C-alpha cells in the first residue's frame, strides 16, 4: 500500500492567497490603530488602513509568486 501524499495545487494556492489576505488585513489593522493613536480622526485612520492593505496585499502576492508558491 502506498502512503504517498497527493498534492492539490489549486487548494494550496488558495490557502496561500488566504494567508496573504489575512496578513494584509493584520497590517491594515495595525496601521489604523497607530493612525488613530496619533489623534487623527476615524475616517483618516480608515483611509490609512485601506492604503496599508492596498500596498501589503500585492507585495505579499508578488513575494509568494517569486518564491514559486503561486
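Q: What amino acid sequence fits the structure above?
A:
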Amino acid at each position: 500500500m502506498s502512503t504517498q501524499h497527493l498534492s492539490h495545487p489549486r487548494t494550496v494556492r488558495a490557502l496561500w492567497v488566504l494567508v496573504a489576505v489575512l496578513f494584509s488585513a493584520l497590517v491594515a489593522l495595525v496601521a489604523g490603530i497607530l493612525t488613530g493613536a496619533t489623534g487623527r480622526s476615524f475616517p483618516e485612520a480608515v483611509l490609512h488602513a485601506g492604503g496599508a492593505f492596498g500596498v501589503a496585499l500585492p507585495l505579499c502576492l508578488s513575494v509568494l509568486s517569486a518564491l514559486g508558491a503561486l
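Q: And what stands out in the fold?
A: The mean pLDDT is 90.
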